[in-house]
From TrEMBL:
The lineage of its organism: Eukaryota, Metazoa, Porifera, Demospongiae, Heteroscleromorpha. This is Lon protease AAA+ ATPase lid domain-containing protein. SUPFAM superfamilies: P-loop containing nucleoside triphosphate hydrolases. Residues 25-63 form the Lon protease AAA+ ATPase lid domain. One of its GO terms (cellular component) is mitochondrial matrix. It comes from Amphimedon queenslandica (Sponge).
Length: 77
């Protein structure tokens, strides 16, 4: 079975991985936008292997860190 090419990975990320990571990190849909250039760089430089498992982990990590930062600075003291 051949692996995914970068265009396929980008489509899978936009349609499935990013929305799933939004909900699992506690972010609302559209609260954080991952631009196409950023996603392409992530795929090109950090997710070279076939498949999307590593891409999913990187997207989840980015959105989790963003969620943490947003929550940290949105608290009223």
């Amino acid at each position: 079975v051949s692996g995914c090419i970068s265009e396929e990975k980008e489509a899978i990320a936009q349609n499935y991985l990013i929305p799933q990571a939004h909900s699992s990190s506690g972010l609302e849909e559209g609260q954080v936008l991952i631009e196409t250039d950023a996603l392409q760089s992530l795929i090109k430089w950090y997710c070279r292997e076939s498949g999307v498992r590593n891409l999913q982990k990187h997207i989840e990590k980015v959105l989790s860190l963003l969620s943490f930062e947003l929550n940290k600075y949105s608290k009223v003291y």
